C-alpha cells in the first residue's frame, strides 16, 4: 500500500488514523460454491501458522485495506478498520456495491487495536495482512479467533497485493477465486501496457499531493509504484537515497524538488486546497512535467484507489487513470484539480 503509517500524522492531516462512526454489521458470505469441505486450512503468515477450523462466517478486519479483497471474494466482514477518508463502513466507492446493504462495524487503531470491541463481535476469523500487528497483538487476537497477520517476508504495511490476496483467499477457503482476482488485474495491466508501447520510453514519478512541514513525500521505485511500472513506465531513479529507512517514502525538501522531475508525474492530490498548496510550494511550477502539461492531479477517490493497492482498487485505477496518462504522455494534461 501507499500511505506509509511511518509518516501518518506527518504527511497530511488526512493521514492521521481516526475513528469513524460505526454500525453493527453481520456476515453475508455469498461466495459461489460450498467451501466448507476445504476446512480445516492452515495458513502461514509472518507471525506463525494459523489453523482455520471451519468456514468463517464472522470475519473481522484489523488491517487497513483487506475489506476490499474479502468483498470481492463475496464475504462482507462484520468489522472493518478505518484508515483515512471516513468512507461509509470504511469502504470506498469502488467497493460499496459489494456490501449488499450491510453495515460493518468500523474499528479504529488510532489508539491501538480495540480488543474489547473485537471480542464483542464474536469473530471466527481475524484478518490483518496490512495491519502492523505485533507479536503481543497477535497473541491477544488469537485468543479471540484464528488470526492471520502480515505476509511472511513482507513489512508491516508494504506487502505485495498478490501475496495478500492469496493469503486471505486461502484463509476463507477460496484459494481458486483469489487466483482469479489476481489474474484479472495482471491481465488488465498487460493489455494496457501492450496498447501503449509509448509508455516504455517515458520516466514517471509518483508523489503525495502536497508537502508537510516543508517536505514532499515521494515514492521510490518499487514502493507503491507498480501501477505505473506495470504499464511500462520507468520509475525515476535515485529517490530511495532520500528515504530515511527501507519501506518508507523519499523525503524531498524544497531545494531538491528538481530530483523528482520526469516525463510523466502523478500527484495524489485529494482536494482543491491540496492542489493549490502543491502549486505554490518551492519550484514545483518550474518542473518540466508541470510546465509541459505532463503532470496528473488526482481527486480524492482516485488517490485512495492508488493507495489501497487491492485487486478491486487497481481495476478502478486503470479505468480512471489510464485516460489521464494518455493525455500526460502527449503533453495535454490539464494543470488543475479534477472537476467533479
UniProtKB/TrEMBL annotation:
Chief site of localization: other
Protein name per Swiss-Prot or TrEMBL: ABC transporter substrate-binding protein
PANTHER family (alphabetical): FERRIC ENTEROBACTIN-BINDING PERIPLASMIC PROTEIN FEPB, IRON III DICITRATE-BINDING PERIPLASMIC PROTEIN
Family of this protein: Belongs to the bacterial solute-binding protein 8 family.
Residue ranges of domain Fe/B12 periplasmic-binding in the record: 58-329
Organism of origin: Nocardioides marmoriginsengisoli
Listed CDD domains: FhuD
Compartments it resides in: Cell envelope
Amino acid at each position: 500500500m501507499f500511505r506509509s503509517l511511518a509518516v501518518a500524522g506527518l504527511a497530511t492531516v488526512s493521514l492521521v488514523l481516526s475513528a469513524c462512526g460505526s454500525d453493527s454489521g453481520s456476515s453475508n458470505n455469498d461466495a459461489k460454491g460450498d467451501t466448507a469441505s476445504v476446512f480445516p486450512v492452515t495458513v502461514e503468515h509472518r507471525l506463525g501458522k494459523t489453523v482455520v477450523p471451519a468456514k468463517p462466517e464472522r470475519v473481522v478486519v484489523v488491517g487497513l485495506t483487506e475489506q476490499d479483497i474479502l468483498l470481492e471474494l463475496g464475504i462482507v466482514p462484520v468489522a472493518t478498520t478505518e484508515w483515512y477518508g471516513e468512507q461509509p463502513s470504511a469502504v470506498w466507492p469502488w467497493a460499496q456495491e459489494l456490501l449488499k446493504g450491510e453495515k460493518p462495524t468500523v474499528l479504529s487503531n488510532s489508539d491501538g487495536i480495540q480488543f474489547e470491541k473485537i471480542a464483542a463481535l464474536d469473530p471466527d476469523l481475524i484478518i490483518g495482512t496490512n495491519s502492523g500487528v505485533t507479536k503481543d497483538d497477535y497473541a491477544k487476537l488469537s485468543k479471540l479467533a484464528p488470526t492471520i497477520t502480515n505476509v511472511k517476508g513482507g513489512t508491516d504495511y508494504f506487502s505485495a497485493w498478490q501475496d495478500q490476496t492469496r493469503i486471505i483467499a486461502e484463509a476463507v477457503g477460496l484459494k481458486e477465486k483469489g487466483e482469479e482476482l489476481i489474474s484479472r488485474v495482471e491481465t488488465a495491466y498487460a493489455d494496457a501496457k501492450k496498447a501503449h508501447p509509448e509508455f516504455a520510453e517515458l520516466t514517471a514519478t509518483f508523489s503525495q499531493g502536497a508537502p508537510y512541514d516543508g517536505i514532499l513525500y515521494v515514492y521510490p521505485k518499487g514502493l507503491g509504484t507498480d501501477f505505473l511500472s506495470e504499464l511500462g513506465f520507468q520509475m525515476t531513479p535515485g529517490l530511495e537515497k532520500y528515504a530515511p529507512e527501507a519501506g518508507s517514502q523519499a523525503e524531498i525538501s524544497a531545494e531538491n524538488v528538481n530530483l523528482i522531475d520526469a516525463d510523466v508525474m502523478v500527484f495524489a492530490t485529494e482536494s482543491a486546497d491540496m492542489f493549490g498548496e502543491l502549486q505554490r510550494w518551492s519550484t514545483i511550477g518550474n518542473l518540466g512535467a508541470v510546465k509541459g502539461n505532463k503532470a496528473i492531479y488526482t481527486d480524492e477517490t482516485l488517490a485512495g484507489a492508488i493507495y489501497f493497492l487491492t485487486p478491486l482498487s487497481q481495476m478502478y485505477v486503470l479505468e480512471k487513470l489510464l485516460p489521464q496518462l494518455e493525455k500526460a504522455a502527449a503533453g495535454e494534461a490539464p494543470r488543475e484539480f479534477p472537476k467533479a
